[in-house]
Request: fold
Amino acid sequence: MSETSPKLRAELDGIPTYKPGRPAASGGPVAYKLSSNENPYPPLPGVMDRAIAAAGSFNRYPDLACTGLLTELAGRFGVPAAHLATGTGSVGVAQQLIQATAGPGDEVVYAWRSFEAYPIITRISGATPVEVPLTGEDVHDLDAMADAVTERTRLIFVCNPNNPTGTAVRRAELERFLDRVPGDVLVVLDEAYREFVRDPEVPDGVELYRDRPNVAVLRTFSKAYGLAGLRIGFAIAHEPVAAALRKTAVPFGVSQIAQEAAIASLRAEDELMGRVGSLVTERARVRQGLVGQGWTVPETEANFVWLRLGARTQDFAAVCEAAGVVVRPFAGEGVRVTIGEHEANDLFLRTAEAFRKEL
Ligand SMILES: Cc1ncc(COP(=O)(O)O)c(C=O)c1O
Reply:
C-alpha cells in the first residue's frame, strides 16, 4: 500500500462538515425532533400518490429540465420559465449560485449567525466568507452589510427570515440596502421560510427581484410544503443568472419523484397553507408561553424560535433531550427550536419552564 494519499484542495482544510439536526432517539418513551425546521405533518395523500406513481419509472432518468414543474412555477409566480432554476434543495441552488459567481480571491458576504451552510459552501468554492454580525436584536445589520462590500464582493446572502433567529428585515430597509449594493454584485434573498411570514412589512423577494437584475430569490419545497426528504428547491433570477444555474447544476440532480411531488404540492397549496397557518398559530402560542415564563425571545417569522442561552446552551439542550424533545444547540450562543406538533410544543414549553425555575 502506498504511504501517500491523494492531494486534496487546501481550501477544504478546516471546513466543518454540515451538521444535521439530531434525530429523535428511537426506543425511548416520547421523542420529538424539533432540531431541523421540518414540517411535522406527514405527506398529503394526493402528493404521496403522485410520488409513488413516479417511483414506478425510476429505472429512467428524470426530466433534466424539470419542464412540467417549471411551467407550474412560472404560472404560480408570474415569472418567465427562463427565470427559474431547480436544484437539490435550495441549499444545492445556493451552492450553485456561489460556484457561478465566486472563486479564490472573491468575497461572499452574509450575516452571522445565519444559515450554517453559507460558510461551508463559500469556502468549498475557495471564496472568502465575510461575516457581518447581527444587531443586538438578532436582526440583519443591513447598513453594516452594505459597508462590508468591496470590489472583491461577488455575492451577498440575505436570509429572510433568518435561520436560526427567525427575525426578518422589512421592505424599506431592504430596498435601501439593495439601492446601495452595486449592480454587479448578486444579492440572494434566501426565503426558505417565506410562507410562514405574517408581518405585511416583510417583503416578498419575488416583487423585489422583478426590476433588479442583480437579485435572486431562493425558495424551497422542504419547509412549508413538507418535501424535505425529496430534496427540491429553486431560484427565481434574471438571465444570465438563471442560465448560470443551469450550467452549474448536477445533471439529473432533481428526481422525477421530487418533481412530481412538487407539482402535486403546488396544486394542493390551499391545504398545505392551512397547515402552515396552524403552525403559525402554534408559533405564537410557543413564543407567548416562553415570554410569559420570562424568556427573551425575538419576534419570529419562521417555523422556529430562538433562545439566546449563552453558556447554558448545552445544558438546556441536554435537559430538553432527556425530556423527549431534541432541539438545535449552537454552543455558547443559543438554541433553535422548531415549531412541531401540539404535544411536542407543550412538552417543550413545560421543559423550558422547569429549566427557567431552576435558574
Ligand atoms: C435559510 C435556509 N436556506 C436554505 C435551507 C435549505 O433547505 P433545503 O436545501 O432543504 O431546500 C435551509 C434549511 O434549513 C435554511 O434554513
